[in-house]
Amino acid sequence: MARKAQHPATTTTASTTVATSNSVPNQQGESFARRQPPFLMWYDDNPKTPVQQKIAAAIAAYKARFPGVQPSLVLVNEAEVAPFEGITVRGMSTVGRYTYWVGQAIGG
After folding, report:
1. What predicted TM-score, i.e. pTM, was given to this entire model?
2. Is the pLDDT of residue 73 over 80?
3. Are 64 and 86 in contact (CB under 8 A)?
């Protein structure tokens, strides 16, 4: 019988990666389940596609992958920050170029 891995699961498809972690150790070293909003990683390095269109495609993929869950945050490379109505787009130096992390902001 196969055992479940104790590390975060990662599912990869052609242009998306979904990372989730639901096991968090407490102060006594015991693990307990915690639901975290999922994030979806979208990669598009096509130079002919505008950044806003790439963000829209990433959001559409998120909604298709997680029906009923509305994203509120997109993390992008600092060089690719573009306004998007209804979504916070935040530039971060740790996000690679042409990579878009779509998810939900925690705590507003």
Report:
1. 0.68
2. yes
3. no
Cα dist from 67 to 59, 62, 63, 70, whole Å: 12, 8, 5, 8
pLDDT given at position 30: 59
**pLDDT the model gives residue 36:** 73
How far apart are alpha carbons 79 and 51 in whole angstroms? 10
Q: Which long-range contacts (CB under 8 A, 24 or more apart) does 80-86 make?
A: 80/51, 82/50, 82/51, 82/52, 82/55, 83/52, 84/52, 84/55, 84/56, 84/59
**pLDDT at residue 90, rounded to an integer:** 98
Q: Residue 54: which of 18, 11, 84, 93 has the closest Cα?
A: 84
Count of positions (residues) in the chain: 108
- Residue 57: its H or E element: helix 51-65
Rg (CA), the chain: 16
What is the predicted pLDDT for the residue at 14? 40
